[in-house]
Amino acid sequence: MENHVYQSPAIPNWSALLIEAVTKPGLIMKAYSAFHSYSVGNQILGLVQCQMRGLQPGPINTFPKWKDLGRFVKRGERALTLCMPITCKRREDNSDEEHTFTSFVYKARWFTLSQTDGQELEPITIPEWDAERALAALNIERVPFDHTDGNIQGFAKQRQVAINPLAQLPFKTLLHELGHVILGHSTEVDFADSETTPRSLREVEAESVALLCCESLGLEGAEYCRGYVQNWLSRGTGSDSEMIPEKSAQKIFRAADQIIRAGRPEIAPVTA
Ligand SMILES: [Zn+2]
Questions:
Q1: Which of 32, 162, 180, 261 is deepest in the core (most CB within 10 A)?
Q2: CB 13: neighbour CB atoms within 10 A?
Q3: Do residues 242 and 235 touch, judged by C-beta distance below 8 A?
Q4: How far is the centre of ligand 1, averaged over its atoms, from the C-alpha of 163 (Å)?
C-alpha cells in the first residue's frame, strides 16, 4: 500500500500539527471534546483552523448533514478543511495487475456549530473509553508483569503488553506500550521501558501516541509525555535539530486514533 498526499500549501502538515498539539497544553483535549467523532489528526486540524479564524470550536458537519439536523449554514461562512482517506485503484502499464492504494485528499466541506443557525442540537455525550475493550478490539493481550528489574514500568513484545503493578503512571505506560505495538515496533524488537525513556525515534513516536491518548481521554500522564516530546523537539537547531519526521507524525496520529476508537463502546464509522 502506498500513501499519496495532495496538500494545499495553506494546510499545515502533520508534523506541524503535532508540534502545535505538543506545545499547547489543553489543545488536544479541547479538540477531542469538540470533534471526537473525527480522526485525531482531523480534530487538531479542525481546532487550529477555528483558532485562526476566531470561531468557537464545536460539533462539525457538512452542509447537507446540518440540513438533516434542522440547521443551516450562515451566509458568507467559509468551510473548514479536513483530510479524507480515499481508496484508489491503479493499473500498471503493460500489466493486468491492479494495485490498491490509499490516498489522502483535503476537502473544504465542514462547518462548525457556530457557523450555523436553526434548531437546537441534542446534547452530545462523549463515549467512554475502556482499556480492556481497547485491548480486545486491537487484538493485544495483557500478560502478567514478570520482569525482575523494578525500574521497568512496562514492556511490549509482539502483540503482548505488560505493565508493572507499581508503575508510576500505569495508564500512560499502557498507552505507550500499546503505541509500540500499533506502530509495529514490537514485532521488530522487544521493548522494556524504564522510568526514563531513552532518546530514539521509536520512543518519541510511542510517547507522542501516549500524549495524544492521555490528553484526549483526560488520563494521568499527559504532562510527563509532553515534557519528553518537547525536550526532543528543543534539542539542536538547523540541520542538527531532531524534528519528528512527517511520516512519523502521520503514523503517530493514525495509531492514537486506532487506540482511542478501539476503547469506545461502538466503533463509529470513520467520518473523516
Ligand atoms: Zn518505549
A1: 180
A2: 14
A3: yes
A4: 12
Q: How far apart are CA 193 and CA 214, in angstroms?
A: 18
Task: Compute the distance from residue 169 Cα to the ligand 1 centre, in Å.
Answer: 13
Write out pLDDT tens, residues 97-111. Answer: 778 887 889 999 999
Could you tell me the distance, in angstroms and rounded to a whole number, from the CA of residue 158 to the centre of ligand 1? Answer: 13
- Ligand 1 geometric centre to CA of 177 (Å): 6
Contacts for 134-139: CB closer than 8 Å, 24+ residues apart: 134/178, 134/259, 134/262, 134/263, 135/161, 135/178, 137/262, 137/263, 137/267, 138/178, 138/181, 138/182, 138/258, 138/259, 138/262
C-alpha cell, 62: 457538512
For the chain, helix (H) and strand (E) counts, in that order, are 9, 10
Tell how far the Cα of 179 is from the centroid of ligand 1, in angstroms: 8
Q: Ligand 1: distance of its center to the CA of 200 in Å?
A: 9
Burial of 269 (0-12, 13-18, 19+ CB in 10 A): exposed
- Distance, CA 13 to ligand 1 centroid (Å)? 25
How many C-beta atoms surround the C-beta of residue 80 within 10 A? 23
CA of 139 to the centre of ligand 1 (A): 19
Task: Compute the distance between CA of residue 80 and CA of residue 102 in angstroms, rounded to an integer.
Answer: 22
Q: What is the mean pLDDT of residues 2-11?
A: 52
pLDDT for 238: 56
Nearest to 31 by CA among 16, 18, 48: 48
Q: Is the pLDDT of residue 46 over 50?
A: yes
